[in-house]
Amino acid sequence: MAETSSNGVVAYEVVDRIAWVKFNRPDKRNAMSPTLNRDMMEVLDALEFRDDVGVLVLSGEGAAWTAGMDLKEYFRETEADGLKGTRKAQRESYGWWRRLRWYQKPTIAMVNGWCFGGGYGPLFACDLAFAAEEAKFGLSEINWGILPGGGATKVAVELLPFRKAMYHAMMGENIDGKTAAEWGLVNEAVPLARLKDRVAEVASVLLQKNPVALKATKDAVRRVSLMSYEDAEDYLVRAQEAANSYDNEGRKEGIRQFIDEKSYKPGLGAYDLSKQQAKS
Ligand code: ACO
Fold first, then answer.
1. What confidence score (pLDDT) does residue 2 get?
2. Are 114 and 59 spatial neighbours (Cβ–Cβ below 8 Å)?
3. What DSSP letter does each residue of 21-35 carry, written as one string?
4. Which H or E run includes 187?
5. Residue nearest to atom 19 of ligand 1 (CA)
6. Could you tell me which residues are beta bridge partners of residue 60?
7. Which string of DSSP letters, residue by residue, matches 71-132?
8. Does pLDDT of 205 surpass 70?
9. Would you say residue 45 has pLDDT above 90?
10. Strand, coil or helix: what is 19?
11. Pocket lining: 111 vs ligand 1, CB cutoff 6 Å
12. Contact assessment for residue 87 and residue 136, using Cβ atoms and an 8 Å cutoff
């Protein structure tokens, strides 16, 4: 990794418009400490509007994606500082997950290993998720005596059918990457040895799409789930019109290349963005 955050607990490099960001506390299985939460926000901030970043991938150094919240630094030590300490730590962790949920660029969770508890926050925050078949997912909170907080229960209920969510939260048993894909926690599971290539392949497809349309699309998918059909219909009209204020040429170019130039078919792939960029 080319660069690290202020305290070294997040690593990142940008290669061919993909920002590869890593939880970087392998000796602590990438547990999320307050320091890591602050560093992650710093890195997300630094990368979000860089022109050379088109997609962000979040993975973990070593054997873990993240072993969830740091039980010592995030819970015990902040609690010792009273309500103030607890609330500050919560704001910092929930803060970067929220930033990631509404990130300007498409995001992919690349789950290379352990993913526990609080890890479900960033897992859900990423637009897409790919796991190693060997990875292990668990809501282990119940095993050490708390409920799955920090959004984790909400993530389980959003992504899993009721019975599976209930079992997962109450039993504290782990599932592997393959099962996580079957259950819908992630899009797909592949052997660890192929994980990075598969994610790079997905990222390269996203890089070919109109970036304004991608941001509008990912926000729309999250927003409409809470809306009535009528509200969603209206929201989607407004969202497209708002997107047009950032890019009023993209869709016209997309139609032109198909109808006039006959150089591609939208049913089979994306229009050539470079021709649009050359005109602007
Ligand atoms: N918080 C604090 N420290 C942790 C955490 C954590 N969540 N996870 C691992 N570590 C530390 C260990 O204490 C150990 O530190 P040490 O070397 O100073 O003794 C080091 O990371 C390595 O951990 P091991 O347990 O030795 O690693 P192993 O590979 O044998 O096991 C496993 C990995 C299964 C992930 C285990 O570390 C574990 O169960 N971690 C806790 C998982 C968990 O329940 N997280 C909380 C979820 S709930 C929530 O996030 C709200």
1. 83
2. no
3. EEE--GGGTT-B-HH
4. none
5. 28
6. 23
7. IIIIIIHHHTTHHHHHHHHHHHHHHHHHHHHT-SS-EEEEE-SEEEGGGHHHHHHSSEEEEE
8. yes
9. yes
10. strand
11. no
12. no
DSSP one-letter code for 69: B
The answer to whether 177 and 189 have CB atoms below 8 angstroms apart is yes
Structure token pair of residue 111:
């789950």
φ, ψ for residue 128, nearest 5 deg: -125, 155
| Secondary structure class of 221 (helix, strand, coil) | helix
Ligand 1 atom with the smallest distance to the CA of 75 is 51
Concatenated DSSP letters of 129-164: EEEETT-EEE-THHHHTS--TTTHHHHHHHHS-HHH
Query: Measured between alpha carbons, how far is 13 from 188 in angstroms, rounded to an integer?
Result: 24
Collapsing DSSP to helix, strand or coil, 131 comes out as: strand
The identity of residue 275, as a single letter, is: K
Question: What percent of the chain stands above pLDDT 90?
Answer: 98
Identify whether the C-beta of residue 140 lies closer than 8 Å to the C-beta of residue 177.
Answer: no
Tell me the mean pLDDT in the region 176-183.
Answer: 98
In a 13 Å sphere around the CA of 194, the CA atoms on its Cβ side amount to: 8
Write out pLDDT tens, residues 54-105. Answer: 999 999 999 999 999 999 999 999 999 999 999 999 999 999 999 999 999 9
The whole-model pTM stands at 0.97
Ligand 1 contacts CB of residue 21 (under 6 A): no
- Amino acid occupying residue 26: P
pLDDT at residue number 130: 99
Ligand 1 midpoint to CA 234 (Å): 46
Helices (H) and strands (E) in the chain, counts: 13, 11
